Amino acid sequence: MLSVLIPTYNFNVYPLAAAIQKQCAGSNIAFEIIVIDDGSGSALNAENDKINYLHRCSFSALSANIGRSAIRNLLASKANYTWMLFLDADTLPVDENLIKNYLPHMDNHVKVVYGGIKYKENKPETMQLLRWVYGNRREALEAEERQQRPYLRLLTLNFLAHKDVFEKVRFNENIPNVRHEDTLFSYDLMVAGLPVEHIDNNVYHLGLDNSIQFIRKSEEAIAGLKFLLQEGLLPDDYVGMGRLYARLRKAGLAATVSFIFVATRKAMLKNLLGSHPSLKLFDFYRIGYMCSLPASQ
C-alpha cells in the first residue's frame, strides 16, 4: 500500500525511520521504508545501517552523488507500492498520526498530497534566526492558504504521490544541481494536469542552516531559478522572483538594481546575520543577486 521514501546526505536518519516504521506498523498496512544516502560517504551511515534491522525497512548508500532530482527518481523506481510518501531526512512527524492522516487520501486518484511543514516554536540562536524566520513566515502555512496556490506551495519534504504520477512527471535530472528542482517539479505537475491537494499533516523541519549557509544556498537557488527561466523551463510569471526580474529587465532597471545590490551588500548582510533579520531586505538581496548574475548564469 505505502512506500516511504527518504533521500539523505550526511545525516542520521535513523530516528525518522524508526518513528515512521512504528506509525506504519501501528496502522496495520502493507508498507516499506527505503532510505538511500546520496554518496556522502558519511560516518553517520554506520548509524543509518541500523535501519536495515527495522521490520520492512532498508538503508543503502550510493558510491557517488547523483543529485537531488535523480535520488528522488531512483527512490520512486524502487517503490513497490501504489502510494509513495517522500520525506526529507531532516524532518520528524509533529505527532504520531502522520501516516494515519494520510491514509484517507490514498484512493484511486492519480494525485499529489502535501501535508505541510512546521518549525519548532522556540526561537533559535541568532546564527540560525534568518532560516527560522523565513521558514515560519513563508513555508509553515496552513492548508487553506496553501491550497490557494496549490502547485507553487508544494514543498517536496513531506508529500504523498500516487505511483502513476511518476509515469507522467519526474524530477528533471538534466538541470544543474543548484536547487529549485522542486519548483520545476510542481510546474510540470501543473502542466500535466495532475492535481495537488493540501492538508494539515505537518512534519517539523529540524535541519536549520545557520544564516551564512542559508544565504549561500539562497544564492544557489537564485542561480538555479535564473537558469530555469533562461532555458524556458519555467515561465517568468510562475514565481514572484521571476515576475519581478522580468519587470526590471523590461523597464531597463536590472543594471541599477545590480549596482545598488553590490554597493549595499555588506550592510544587508549585517542585518540578515543579526538578531532582527528583515525578510523584505532578504527579498531585495535575492533579486539584487539575480540581477548581478551574468546572463549566462
Describe the protein's topology.
Blueprint: E1 2-8, H1 14-26, E2 31-37, H2 45-48, E3 57-61, H3 68-78, E4 83-87, E5 91-93, H4 98-102, E6 112-114, E7 117-118, H5 129-139, H6 143-146, E8 158-162, H7 165-168, H8 181-192, E9 196-198, E10 203-205, H9 211-230, H10 240-250, H11 254-272, H12 279-292
Parallel strand pairs: 1-2, 1-4, 2-3, 6-9, 7-10
Antiparallel strand pairs: 4-8, 5-10, 6-8
Name the strands of the widest sheet in spatial order: 3-2-1-4-8-6-9
| Global Rg | 20 Å
What is the top-level CATH class of the largest domain?
Alpha Beta
- Number-wise, the strands total 10
Task: Please tell me the CATH architecture of the largest domain by its name.
Answer: Alpha-Beta Complex
- Distance between the amino and carboxyl termini: 43 Å
- By CATH, the topology of the largest domain is Spore Coat Polysaccharide Biosynthesis Protein SpsA, Chain A
Would you identify the CATH H-level superfamily of the largest domain? Spore Coat Polysaccharide Biosynthesis Protein SpsA, Chain A
**How many structural domains?**
2
Estimate the mean pLDDT confidence.
96
Question: How helix-rich are the residues, as a percent range?
Answer: 40-55%
Q: How would a crystallographer describe the biggest sheet?
A: 7 strands, mixed
Ranges with pLDDT <50 over ≥5 residues?
none
Structural class: alpha/beta
Pattern of helices and strands: EHEHEHEEHEEHHEHHEEHHHH
